[in-house]
Amino acid sequence: MTENTETDDDGREAQNSSNDAESGTSTAVTRRGALTALGAAGLLGYLGTGRASAEVLSGVDNTAPQATQVIAGGRDNTIPENATMAAITGGRHNEASGEYSFVGGGGGEEGDRGNRATALHTAVCGGAANRAGSLTKLLPGAFVGGGTGNEATDAWTVIAGGTSNEAGDPAAAVLGGMGNEAGNTATVGAGRENSAFGGGSVVGGGLQNEAVGKASTVSGGFLNETSALGATVGGGGSTDVLVSVGGVLGTMFLEPPSDSTEGNRAFDEFATVAGGADNVAGSDNEDETSAPYSTVGGGRANVAENDCATVPGGRSNVAAGEYSLAAGRRAAAAHRGAFVWSDGEDAAFGSTGAHQFLVDAAGGVGLGHEAPEADVLDVRGAAAGSARDPASSIAYVENESQDASADVLALKVNTEMPGPDNDFVTFLNGRDDAIGTIEGNGSGGVTYTGAGGDFGEYFPKADPDATFAPGEVVGLRGGEITRTTADADTAFVVTDRPIVLGNNAEDTEDRVAVAMLGQVPVDVAETVDAGDLLVATDAADGRARVADGTPAAPVVGRALTSASEDEESVDAFVNASVDGAPNEDASAARSDADRIAALESTLDRKDERIDDLEAETERKEARIDELESRLAAVEQAVEALPTGGTMQAD
């Protein structure tokens, strides 16, 4: 047995007695020489020199009973007899009781402040009241770097430092902090009162966080929890205030957590809360697979509680449907595939069915525009191209259903009988001036308004290379438009501003639009008075003239304005029809006028007869009044006669 007999606190040389069991010789060793040797070769190297006796190199009341045991200095340090190859470099009240165990130093004046390395290959580098190794199990490889009151008690556990930390299951690790615990293959980086108990789980730091699920992670924050496989909480935690929000959406009541003392929680497999406060990813039930891959990015009091549901942030949002997303404030995506975006107003806004995309934005919604009007969807872009190419439009709406009843677009004005002040559609020019509308008519229908007033239709040209100008008079012959009108079936006027244009085609180069009904400008060849009947000229010059006599030319229309010799056009009313007015000859038109005049004459005669009958009736009523008056006089005379008297005849 080797016992220290003297120490030198100021670093001067001291003598130690070493009783070698075999030789009985004494060896003088200086502290500086021992420490230099240990520093140069390392303590294990020193033990490996093959010395046959234990060594207490310095200090007071140190005990090392066996060969190959070393205590380099300090006080009240102990290596038990069975701790082969154990070593203590210094400190006080330290113990290296495991084979090949090591205590670097530290400890304290009281016995319970010492460090202990209690199992095979365990080590405590320094600090106080630390333990590496179990008191009851021979579990190897535990390590404590320093700090105070740390315990690494299972195989291959590590506590780097800090205070009151525990690593109590195989391969657990606590790097530092205070009051942290790590379980099987789990790690706590630092912080305070954090615990990682799931296999392979990690708590990076923070305060009172828990990683319970296997391979789960809490990076930091306060009062956060992961309880399922692969779940993650990035940070954040509790606001330490009560929050209670939510609302009734249809028949579903959704309410984010109100117990703020629980921080962020990820309950289900591979669920994630990246940060914020009082957020929940997953469903708080026994089935850890009921809401996997749910995610809350941050914010406050948000819940993602179904498979692949997401809340990117904001406050008091709930994503309760599979693959749903809720963002903003008090948005509730309660159905599968629903996306709900809510503004910052403190009012519930939620889905009412699956696969909805809902946006609540009191300030307006802008697509391609940063300043929309309030409560307006404002879509802007710079698309250009062919007039009929969808790529040239900034909005494209398609109903992909092949059902015969499929519709595309519905527009609603929330009044029972929309009137002219209710525009379903308004068309604007580059100056934002209204150039046309589709508005209510006050009678349960709609009215189309615009600068154009006629109904037009495309017809093919007889000569595809011919060009026509608006207002030209043309003829229809054999289903094609020609400038020659003498033998045409019908006369038309070329139009460029119809409010409705039919018979449209992809390519209109070989077609021309003509007015079928309405008011259009008409080129004229002579003076015209309003009300004149216009017919096509015989010169094929694209102009009209006033009908006279019985012309053979087809009728163009009725002039609504006048034109002098210097003016070249008038506004005219046209009304194209087949085998009827107004594209009949002038005599047919006059014949209709004669018939109308005859009917009017007949009506006049009947009116006169009615007047005669009314006069006769008045005379008869006067005669009746006279007779009634005479009858009354007779009755009075009869009543005046004396009783029994007789009336003398006149």
TrEMBL record:
<protein>
    <submittedName>
        <fullName>Uncharacterized protein</fullName>
    </submittedName>
</protein>
<feature type="coiled-coil region">
    <location>
        <begin position="596"/>
        <end position="637"/>
    </location>
</feature>
<keyword id="KW-0175">Coiled coil</keyword>
<feature type="compositionally biased region" description="Polar residues">
    <location>
        <begin position="14"/>
        <end position="28"/>
    </location>
</feature>
<feature type="compositionally biased region" description="Acidic residues">
    <location>
        <begin position="1"/>
        <end position="11"/>
    </location>
</feature>
<feature type="region of interest" description="Disordered">
    <location>
        <begin position="1"/>
        <end position="28"/>
    </location>
</feature>
<dbReference type="InterPro" id="IPR011049">
    <property type="entry name" value="Serralysin-like_metalloprot_C"/>
</dbReference>
<feature type="region of interest" description="Disordered">
    <location>
        <begin position="278"/>
        <end position="298"/>
    </location>
</feature>
<dbReference type="InterPro" id="IPR006311">
    <property type="entry name" value="TAT_signal"/>
</dbReference>
